[in-house]
Amino acid sequence: MSKRTITVIPGDGIGPSIIDSALKILDKVGCDFEYDFADAGLVALEKHGELLPQQTLDLIEKNKITLKGPLTTPVGGGFTSINVTLRKKFALYANVRPVLSLKGTQARYEDIDIITVRENTEGMYSGLGQTVSDDGCTAEATSIITRKGAEKIAVFAYELARKENRKKVTIVHKANIMKSTSGLFLKVAREVSERFPDITTEEMIVDATCMKLVMNPENFDVIVTTNLFGDILSDLCAGLVGGLGMAPGANIGGNAAIFEAVHGSAPDIAGKNLANPTSVILASIQMLEHLGMADKAEAIRSAVTEVIASGDRTTRDLGGTYGTTDFTDAILERL
């Protein structure tokens, strides 16, 4: 059997060092992958004169599965978000952000297990129709929600809930005010929910969701929502389990999937062997589950859980005093 090849985008800042950790762990557990390395972000801009070179797009297309470190999009004129570009280019319509409490983190809660499923290509976040008037006094943007897009993400969320033996899906919206866009999303999600009578459905307005996530996060299971709300809520959920360093993300489409650390490139600690690689290691676990390699995913998860719980060689954000490589070694030893 030929080896599976995955595209690896090390990214900017701390990206290369945390990606290196993840690859060492994947190799150690016996995944037997081949890696095609590709550039994107500032590193690509310096090397190739563009943020997202064609050869990188070709490799994502060819291998279908990509593991990605954090990328920096320069702030200001003319640069569109690389992540948004990738999502649209490969129709990665579902963004899946699980958060799970791990013992030994500095988190405020102990029993969180929530998956946020976010529509990834439509709505306010997609950046359509952004204009500023010549006098600089009026700004506009367009939000478009389609029945097709809403149905795809709702079906994805309910199917995921069923597959993972989850009991409840919460549809998060703002249909009381945004009656057209959020209204359509809610209407379609309701229709989809009727096809899944085995799963409890609740509906919640986004602002109430934020409050309840902070007060009683244990009441949530799977959340499905639109692009902008999902972006905000998934970061709030990450905060419940100790921050973005503990939160992976998957971008899934019909023909391709990109798994990533969801935090930034942290240029202030780049090259200092200080970064916590957990987010991208958890993203690689998502990748393995997507590829049907659940046993290997579980082996890595239990090793990571054990290291963080024991405090053995943990990084500063986890209350330890060690660096990226020490933390990685502690996981490798358990594997």
From TrEMBL:
PROSITE patterns: IDH_IMDH (PS00470). It is an enzyme of class 1 (oxidoreductase). Keywords: Oxidoreductase. InterPro entries: IsoCit/isopropylmalate_DH_CS, IsoPropMal-DH-like_dom. GO terms for molecular function: isocitrate dehydrogenase (NAD+) activity; magnesium ion binding; NAD binding. Its EC number is 1.1.1.41. SUPFAM superfamilies: Isocitrate/Isopropylmalate dehydrogenase-like. GO terms for biological process: isocitrate metabolic process; tricarboxylic acid cycle. The keyword Oxidoreductase applies. The keyword Oxidoreductase applies. Signal peptide: none annotated. Residues 5-331 form the Isopropylmalate dehydrogenase-like domain. Gene3D superfamilies: Isopropylmalate Dehydrogenase. Pfam families: Iso_dh. Belongs to the isocitrate and isopropylmalate dehydrogenases family. NCBIfam families: PRK08997.1. This is Isocitrate dehydrogenase. It comes from Parashewanella spongiae. The lineage of its organism: Bacteria, Pseudomonadati, Pseudomonadota, Gammaproteobacteria, Alteromonadales.
